[in-house]
Amino acid sequence: MSDRKSYKSDLSEDRWALIEPVITAWKAKHPSVSGHQGNYEMREIVNAILYQSRTGCQWDYLPHDLPPPGAVKYYFYKWRDDGTDQTIHDLLRWQVRESRGRLPDPSLVVLDTQSLHAAAGVPAATTGRDAAKKVPGRKRGLAVDVLGLVIAVVVLAASAHDNAAGTALLDKVAADIDTVKKALVDQGFKNTVVEHGADLGIAVEIVERNPADRGFVPQPIRWRVEQTNGILILHRRLVRDYEHRPASSESRVYWAISDVMARRLTGTSTPAWRGA
């Protein structure tokens, strides 16, 4: 890495060592036609992505001592489109699960959605209004395991029903992991999701809220997805949806959780806003 002053979002040597093999292998498969190795270290490209994730800054506001926005955009979009971001994320997730004495892939997932305001400039064609929550923007759906680790993410217009997010999440889970046999959802999901899960070999259980409960009461196992939503908000780029394409919004989730998992694997805490 360069001799610049470090940022709190920068990868440590240990965290970089976790993802460097994936980046190096990707670089070897995508050589420059001219044979040029590029002007920027791959570690610095990832540092710039993580800096933007943590601070929420616009592309043109990336610090001048990080690679220029054009270079960072190039790799962010490339890795989004070819799935390298998810490859890094999944490898880290397997390591975290195994470090907790679990099999690499889960048998149970928890589904939930969260509606987010969209920033100015986000295309209207990919946004909508959540009628129930009165939120104009996009809807982010997560499937997490019992540790709160992300298994799948989808981003839709906020006007989309939870059923649409639920079926899309189940499709992603079934396509990527064949060990999942059960999914827990809240009452916002309907029988459409239950039936779709059955078609995929996944038993979907709608967890009923206790009518005697007042205010927010964590539900066994299902609270893990709420915890994950809270962790994502530490990454300011995810507080609103700033991305032109929903696929970029999904990629931001993978990068944010990859950062969290790399810190867990190396015993490094994630700074809170007031200390970052």
Architecture overview:
The protein has 276 residues and is of the alpha/beta class. Helices cover 42% and strands 14% of the residues. The radius of gyration is 19 Å and the shape is globular. The model has no long low-confidence stretch (mean pLDDT 92).
Extract low-pLDDT stretches: none
Average of pLDDT: 92
Strand content: 5-15%
The number of helical elements comes to 8
- Listing every helix as H and every strand as E from the N terminus to the C terminus, the arrangement reads HHHHEEEEHEHEHH
How would you concisely characterize the structure shown here?
The chain is an alpha/beta fold and 276 residues long. The protein has helices spanning 13-29, 42-55, 69-82, 84-99, 162-176, 191-200, 223-232, 246-265, and strands at 108-117, 128-130, 135-144, 150-157, 182-185, 203-206. It contains eight helices and six strands, in the order H-H-H-H-E-E-E-E-H-E-H-E-H-H.
